[in-house]
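Appendix B, example 12.
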Amino acid sequence: MVTTYPAKGLPKFYLESKHADIQATRGEDFHYSWVIGDSQLLTVEYIPANWPCLTVSVATETADHMRATLAEIGFEISE
């Protein structure tokens, strides 16, 4: 579940200097997540069957929970 809440400021985070904490694929679908705070993930997903097919979001859940959810819906998670 993705939620919106007031931000106190952007975290010190540089996407280009950090590898994704979660990388998962399912056919041509892909999912990348970076841990950006306490139980927060910045997620980029591309799923052509969905609309919109490319999404970027901040989710309030742990990386372990996201990995379990992805595995449950058929994504292959890279270690």
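The chain has a mean pLDDT of 83. The helical segments are 63-72.
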